[in-house]
Amino acid sequence: MRTLILIAFAISLSVCSVRAQTGNTPSESSSTLSTAPVDFADDQTFTQYQRVTAGMKPPKATHAPDPKFPDLPPDAEPHGTVVMLVGVNAKGHVAAVRVLRSDEKAFEQSAVDTVKKWKFKPAEKSGRPVPVQVTVEMKFQR
What we know:
Order of helices and strands: EEEEEEEHEEEE
Radius of gyration: 15 Å
Largest sheet: 6 strands, antiparallel
Oligomer: single chain
CATH class: Alpha Beta
CATH topology: TolA/TonB C-terminal domain
Strand order of the largest sheet: 1-2-3-11-6-7
CATH superfamily: TonB
Distance between the termini: 17 Å
Shape: elongated
Number of strands: 11
Number of helices: 1
Structural class: mainly beta
Number of domains: 1
């Protein structure tokens, strides 16, 4: 059984990162959470989620299971990265996911399915929970 080890949690004025790496198998998958701004003016799904700004406490992952390494087509690379925009609601649940970039299409569904299972301590502004958008990067490697 794999366990998730929290490697780093750093907060700066405009960026917060949480890095996680699996324990038993070397570098099979890892994830990064960032609150760096992403601009999608045409995407109405994420308009209800604020960007994490100064004076705001970013969300903190409390349950972040590892993604399953998918069955790959014979011509696929055995490694890849999926970057997603994730909307975390005021209750700490993942409510919206959009794939921003992917090296290998075969990894996208596993990444999206996994991040939808994540739970967070919600972001806070003035002591009250607020919905925010974060960027999650999942790396897959065998």
